[in-house]
Amino acid sequence: MPAEFNKLGLSFQYPENWQLDHEDAASGQSVTVYSPGGAFWSVSIDPHASDPIKLARAAVGAMQEEYSELEVTEVCETIAGVGMTGFDLNFYYLDLTSTAAVRCFRTERATYTIFYQSEDREFEQIEKVFRAMSTSVLRNLVAPEIH
Question: How far is 58 from 121, CA to CA, in rounded Å?
Fold first, then answer.
């Protein structure tokens, strides 16, 4: 049975064997869930006026500082009826290839950034879990605004 997070105005399900960490500070609000293998999925909350593409680019900039050979592909996609802008990222870490994704979107309440990352050995399988968590949070954010 999946575990459920329900704080900070966010609600989503995640695998019960994953470790959850959340921050509710003046500097920002975020939730990160870590897989047993080291992959992670995170969502952060910024003020509504924050520009989603600027947030996505800032995340890419931080990754470029860390990984000099970062490959970046711009992506627009829709999940649970929510249009998101962002980037797919590929890079090497400790001689292993890794994939990350950053997706940003705005609701009437706030602007959100979803970021997830995994080594490529497990990415194909774990991406399904990332998508399920993203869909879960999006449905719970958007559903109250629809009704």
Answer: 27
According to the 3-state scheme, what is the secondary structure of 21-71?
Answer: EEEEECCEEEEEEECCCCCEEEEEEEECCCCHHHHHHHHHHHHHHHCCCCE
CB 55 within 8 A of CB 46: yes
Residue-level pLDDT, tens digit, the chain, 147 residues:
789 999 888 899 999 999 999 876 555 689 999 999 899 999 999 999 999 999 999 999 999 998 888 999 999 999 888 899 999 999 987 778 999 999 999 998 899 999 999 998 888 889 999 999 999 999 888 754 443
* Distance (Å, whole) CA 93 – CA 112: 27
DSSP assignment letter at 36:
T
pTM comes to 0.90
Residue 61: how many other CB atoms lie within 10 Å: 10
Question: Could you give the strand order of the β-sheet that contains 82-93, starting from the edge strand earlier in sequence?
Answer: 19-25, 28-34, 40-47, 110-119, 96-106, 82-93, 71-79
The first and second tokens of residue 120, run together, are 């490529």
